[in-house]
Amino acid sequence: LSYICLLLFLVGLKTQAQKSLNPKVQLLVRNYQDSVVLRWAPTSAAQWLIASQKGYRVQKTVISKGSSQGMSTLLTPNKILPLTFEEVKLRYSKQDSYVGAAVQSLYNPKASTTFQQSVGGIIQKSNEQNSRYASAMLSADYSPNAATVLGLRWVDKAAKNPDDIIMYKVWIDT
Fold first, then answer.
1. Cα separations (Å) of 101 from 69, 94, 131, 158?
2. pTM for the full predicted model
3. What pLDDT, in 10s, does the model give residues 73-99?
């Protein structure tokens, strides 16, 4: 009986771990006269770190009036990744503090690159990653430029028909 309980406990842990690693992205969409702006964020520091390497994809589905099926289009044939440090230096001013904070979150040269297997080391690394994530998301919330630098923003400038229903889907690339 104790083996069965232990087995059920381990299966429960594995299931919980798989749920926590399931990539989740929250999406906010704003409709403007000339465009639709998509701004998203992964729901955890771990997902943000993974997505910073793998990138994002954006899909648009348009359902026209009188049609029962939508037409889906992949808007990002190339995945959306954060800008490189060199690209940021070319595009943005050094005086843009939100872009600076975004770059610091992504490319922090003071971030530890070693992993200490002690409990204290694990907690320290977790706190560091969570702080970088919080700083990055805050910068992206306050600045469209910072969101672009972090690869968390897309602008759809395609013509819109007011009678259409448009849905967007953003996911972390695999």
1. 43, 11, 12, 31
2. 0.80
3. 999 999 999 999 999 999 999 899 999
